[in-house]
Amino acid sequence: MVRFQNVPINEFREKEFEDWLIERGTDSRGLTRTTKALFTYAVEKKYIPEHPITKKTPLPVIGSPSILEEAQWQSLVATALSSQDHKNSERGEKIDLLAWVVLGLWCGLRPEAEMSRLDWTDVNIEDGFVNVHDNWKVKLGRHVTIPEAAKLLLNKCKRKKGPIVSPKNFRKRWEWLRKEAGVYADWDDDIMRHTYASLHYAHYKNKQQVINELGHCDESMLRHYINHGVKMRKQAEAFFRYKII
């Protein structure tokens, strides 16, 4: 007879599961999910007549998303705009990161899985969308809306052919730009995406629209975006109406 925690599987009850979690000192999402999957398999194989665990898998505990303050994202944009032709002192490549910053901030694209794969042919400024291909991060591709503020900035990009960002010496160029903009400390890889999602909800108050634009959204993280968004109405208005002086 198959046993779980020294209890025959056909005699196992939810109380034993609760005691087990308490004994381990955790209410782990992973433990609950894995254990429920085990008993689901046992039911399918008819080892037991019904599933003994009714406890819901707890939502993951996620810290509040890091976001850029208004002065920070404005500094990042202004620095990216003014430094397009600035050359890295070590190898001579142009910084050329305005499109990277704009698409990260106003479209919420994933830096590694999406933006690093984008070509300018995927960016339709006139019709206002970015084409994210279906063989990238998510199973289904999507068109991400380019807000008016982002259109104006993308039209200021001096290069609109080839990849959105050149991979040559990218990390050093990106590090230089963030240091120049004064946003290097405590930088999180998804901080532009988190900023976009929080400000998007603050501006449009539409959960489903946030989910659609991001491609998917964890329920816990969506709650954080909403919680941030309700406090950021004025910042969101400035963000979506932004025009470089």
In CATH, the topology of the largest domain is named hpI Integrase, Chain A
CATH architecture grouping of the largest domain:
Orthogonal Bundle
Number of beta strands? 5
Spans where pLDDT lies below 50 across 5 or more residues: none
Average pLDDT for all residues: 85
Summarize, please.
The protein is mainly alpha-helical and 245 residues long.
Tags for this entry?
245 residues, mainly alpha, hpI Integrase, Chain A, 3-stranded antiparallel beta sheet, 10 helices, elongated
Question: How would you describe this protein?
Answer:
This protein starts with a strand and ends in a 5-residue tail after the last helix. It contains ten helices and five strands, in the order ββααααβββαααααα. Strand 3 (123-124) and strand 4 form a beta hairpin. The chain is 45% helix and 6% strand. Helix 3 packs antiparallel against helix 4, helix 4 (98-107) packs across helix 7 (191-204) and helix 7 crosses helix 10. The chain is mainly alpha-helical and 245 residues long. The model has no long low-confidence stretch (mean pLDDT 85). The chain has two domains: 3-44, no CATH class; 70-240, Intergrase catalytic core (hpI Integrase, Chain A, Orthogonal Bundle). It is elongated, with a radius of gyration of 23 Å.
Topology:
Layout: E1 3-4, E2 7-8, H1 14-24, H2 29-44, H3 70-82, H4 98-107, E3 123-124, E4 129-132, E5 142-145, H5 148-154, H6 170-181, H7 191-204, H8 207-214, H9 219-229, H10 233-240
Antiparallel strand pairs: 1-2, 3-4, 4-5
